[in-house]
Amino acid sequence: MSTPILELRNVNKSFGPIDVLNDISLKVDAGEVLCLLGDNGAGKSTLIKTLAGVYKPTTGEVLMDGKPVDFHGPRDAQQMGISTVHQFGGTFPLMSIGRSFFIGAEPTKGFWPFKIYDRRKANEIAVKAVQEFGITRIDDGDRLIGGLSGGERQSLAIARAVHFGARVLILDEPTAALGVKQASHVLRIVLEAKKRGIAVIFITHQVTHAMAVGDHFAVLIRGAVAANFRKGEKTREEITDLMAGGEALANLGAEVESYMAAHEGHPPPVTPN
User: Could you tell me which residue ranges the ABC transporter domain spans (predicted)?
Assistant: First the structure.
């Protein structure tokens, strides 16, 4: 059995007296898409920030390649190969594609102290990286980011992360604000990243998109893993019910039925708040 690239073991995160993550245990392997599903307030954002090194777990362990790691900030996580792409791609509308692709790591030419930004090299690499992911409409590195569609921006951000050595790609609601065609572009790129052996953590509340790319699913409810299952083990309707707390409601209904059977059809008493 292979060692997961990234694993959480019994991770809890509290802010003062408030418990936000409760005993989270998850893992993702190379070439696998783990879909984290949950409604607003489920704890997805806190979990992302814990994986990305923004927050340190209150208790529990984060492991990479089977070894415990202690991130002191996002840069530590990035150096270990964890890259996060947020909902709008983290791109800059008034920057060119080439400049945005290399921001903070710009290629240069010439000799010190006369080094200058190598625009042609940056543009060539950026365009090639995006086109290798199947986004052939981007063919000019001088084009402004603001002229790209939402799906193209996401594609550019993902291609950038892969180019700079991402081993774990965390995608935060990458299809949330996109139309059907743009979302399909992003989903194709997720599958391409998976094909390249990258571990993808796909955070979403859109079950259809998750089912299109996911191998492994975890449903978060109130900061805890309510369900953890593989592809094909649950239907779309079952997953949707889980996200809405359906399993908890079903358990409550069973308890009520059991009580009524034991008490000659009388419902349980309501305790006033």
Answer: 6-247
- Are 62 and 80 in a shared domain? yes
More confident residue, 264 or 172: 172
Residues 63 and 104 occupy one common structural domain = no
Q: What does the pLDDT read at residue 267?
A: 54
Spatial distance between the Cα atoms of 126 and 145, rounded to a whole number of angstroms: 12
Same domain, 72 and 116: no
Query: What's the pLDDT score for residue 263?
Result: 61
**270 falls within a domain:** no
SS3 220: strand
Cα 110 from chain centroid (whole Å): 39
Alpha carbon distance 54, 167 (integer Å): 18
Residue type, 174: P
Please check whether residue 267 is in contact with residue 239, taking contact to mean a CB–CB distance below 8 angstroms: no
Distances (CA, A) of 79 to 73, 82, 122, 137, 153: 10, 7, 22, 31, 23
* Same-domain check for residues 97 and 221: no
140 plus 177 within the same structural domain:
no
Q: Are 59 and 23 in contact (CB under 8 A)?
A: no
Q: What residue numbers bound the domain in which 137 lies?
A: 92-147
The verdict on 113 and 233 lying in the same domain is: no
User: Could you give the CA distance from residue 259 to residue 268 in angstroms, rounded to a whole number?
Assistant: 7
Q: Specify the range with the lowest mean pLDDT, choosing from 62-76, 177-191, 253-267.
A: 253-267
- How many domains does one find in the chain? 2
pLDDT value, residue 257: 53
132 and 232 fall within a common domain: no
Structure confidence by residue, pLDDT tens digits, 56-72? 999 999 999 999 999 99
